[in-house]
Amino acid sequence: MRIVLVGPPGAGKGTQASFLAENLSIPHISTGDLFRANISQGTPLGQKAQEYMRAGQLVPDEVTIGMAKDRMQEPDAASGFLLDGFPRNIAQAEALDAYLAETGQKLDAVLDLEVPEDEVVKRIAGRRICRNDSSHVFHVEYSPPKQDGVCDVCGGELYQRDDDREETVRKRLAVYHSETEPIIDHYKAQDLVTTISALGEVGEVTARAMQALRRD
């Protein structure tokens, strides 16, 4: 299966993508992983991306598109893939359409993870990270530490990252609405979109997504 996963920040795309890809035995291709792999391997596209990032600029669509195309051509993606974070705008969606048409492939489904905006803000703004180890993550409401402001694992100080502050989250949501959300209508015109509620336990959301894919 060839699937695109769409949803606002805080919808749990990365978590769901991992579970779905494992259940479907296809690679999970995320934009973050593409950038990290290309930069660490020193590929020409990775070097270009790094130049823009060092200058504090956005990486152009053509660089991201090139990385995604290269990854989709790897042997493990021959029978399908799950794209997470790509495409993120109409230009990238059109480039993906063109690539699939050129290679005789097609998308099977676009899963739109839906979460109310206030819930997104609550999920992200409530995160607290350990200063000693960023893999120790808590949430003031959903998974609070035993002692306020103290990591249960190592006793380190818990803090809120600047990216997780409410004003920053709302800016990220505004970018999502203006840049990424239009791809949902793009794919609705191709009758590919299924909207999934991303509220509830992780397993419940995965089950909804798998049920939608079975219907497709």
From TrEMBL:
The keyword Cytoplasm is assigned to this record: yes
Entry's localization field: Cytoplasm
One of the record's GO cellular component terms: cytoplasm
GO annotation terms (biological process): AMP salvage
Listed EC numbers: 2.7.4.3
Pathway as given in its UniProt record: Purine metabolism; AMP biosynthesis via salvage pathway; AMP from ADP: step 1/1
EC main group: transferase
Catalytic activity: AMP + ATP = 2 ADP
Keyword terms, alphabetized: ATP-binding, Cytoplasm, Kinase, Nucleotide biosynthesis, Nucleotide-binding, Transferase
UniProt xrefs under InterPro entries: Adenyl_kin_sub, Adenylat/UMP-CMP_kin, Adenylat_kinase_CS, Adenylate_kinase_lid-dom, P-loop_NTPase
Domain Adenylate kinase active site lid: 127-163
GO molecular function: AMP kinase activity; ATP binding
Domain of life: Bacteria
Role according to the record: Catalyzes the reversible transfer of the terminal phosphate group between ATP and AMP. Plays an important role in cellular energy homeostasis and in adenine nucleotide metabolism.
Domain description: Consists of three domains, a large central CORE domain and two small peripheral domains, NMPbind and LID, which undergo movements during catalysis. The LID domain closes over the site of phosphoryl transfer upon ATP binding. Assembling and dissambling the active center during each catalytic cycle provides an effective means to prevent ATP hydrolysis.
Similarity comment: family membership: Belongs to the adenylate kinase family.
Assembly mode: Monomer.
The protein's name: Adenylate kinase
